[in-house]
């Protein structure tokens, strides 16, 4: 399976996962022009995307959705709550309503919905699997709930939220209300919580950890790297940012490299 982050952060998210000819996006939270530019850099042909899955209706997850799905006539899969909350009126022939814990087959891959705690109407994360490799995209996690722990235990590739540094958030210039909205169990998880989750629930099958959805105000790439890198000696480690797309990764290549290194 191949995968990359086209964008990741509190201002825009878009993730690509493919197996052979079956390619999907999770979220289209940056505008279509930027999605197209970044796809061109990665060698992705947008017209070959077979489905778009949307995690929830916050603008950093749907900003480019309407234009992108209409331009390329790509079906959109989302929960009834997310559809309603988005206030977007997409062409009905492109809309598919799924349960938050649904299992959707797109060609040879399955996309599994994972309900989560977040201040949206009916949010879920997604795990994409071909039956043997699980690629998990886990952001906007209000808290370290059992669903998150379970997914981490079964991930071969894990993109995990590492949203904020607790001291930067506490000392920063956000209002008391906004600070609490982020950390009250319905917003985002901190670098510290993310690290604890990773250390306690990673299994020996995990091959690649990607940290994502970093806050612009309350986090830095350097802090996330300092937090996680010392614990990633035996696996591949990456940080997905708002500034540019990641490389296109291939699970098979990573496995080969790790076998050679072992
Ligand atoms: Zn959100
Ligand atoms: Zn978000």
UniProtKB/TrEMBL annotation:
InterPro entries: Metallo-B-lactamas (IPR001279), RibonucZ/Hydroxyglut_hydro (IPR036866), WalJ/YycJ-like (IPR052533)
SUPFAM superfamilies recorded: Metallo-hydrolase/oxidoreductase
Pfam families (alphabetical): Lactamase_B
Protein name: MBL fold metallo-hydrolase
Gene3D superfamilies from the UniProt entry: Ribonuclease Z/Hydroxyacylglutathione hydrolase-like (3.60.15.10)
GO molecular function, one term: hydrolase activity
Positions of the Metallo-beta-lactamase domain: 11-201
Organism in which the protein naturally occurs: Sphingobacterium alkalisoli
Keyword Ion transport appears in the UniProt entry: no
Organism domain of life: Bacteria
Assigned keywords, A-Z: Hydrolase
